[in-house]
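Hi! If you just cloned this repository, the fastest way to understand the data is to look at a raw example. We've pasted two of them here, unedited. The first protein comes first, obviously.
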Amino acid sequence: MGCVLVDIDPALSVNRDNPTGIVDQPQLPRFKAYTNYDNYVGVETWTKIGINNTDYNDQGMFDAVNNRFVAPVDGTYLFGATLMYKVNASTAARMIGRLVLNGTIEVRGSYGEISG
């Protein structure tokens, strides 16, 4: 039999649904964001992709105006991304993507490349 530790502060609570056993952390920092327009990316240059909308951002951790997630506490965070590109004039186009920390440091393991 397992146990659930609960903080006395309701803002930091962990909830357990007794009938299902599902545990929820309503204050866990999380968001789901996307772009609703085409970002033009020039050849041979790194371009910051604007992410301007959120499907989920209840804790307000993602700032769509500044295109930034600010972690409220030190820890490990999981990020994922899906990228799609359209070819303008060159059929030899390729795309390289990466996540960066604090605007400059490439996050290890986030670099990816595709060519078409």
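Ok, and the second one:
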Amino acid sequence: MGDARELPQGHGMDLRQDATARRWLNSLRDVAYDAEDLIESAVLQQQGDRYSAVNSVLHPISRYRSAQKVEEIRSRIRDMVDRRTSYAAMARELGH
């Protein structure tokens, strides 16, 4: 992903100076980090499952928790898309 400051500037909007866009980009970064953490945890869990009988008993619980985290991330992404859509509509109305 390129530098966030290089995102849509073609309509007279400088994202570096727009607080709303900056907050949105920060949220995007946070969601990306959370998704990365979830993937890394799943990989580590998968490796640990090979070596531990206890993990095989706890595996359904871990999968349930992981599924909850995935759904939370998906929900956050949907909210972000909705906010971006609203923001873009406002910007169009303001002539940016």
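That's it. A detail worth noticing about the second one: Confidence is low (pLDDT under 50) at residues 1-7.
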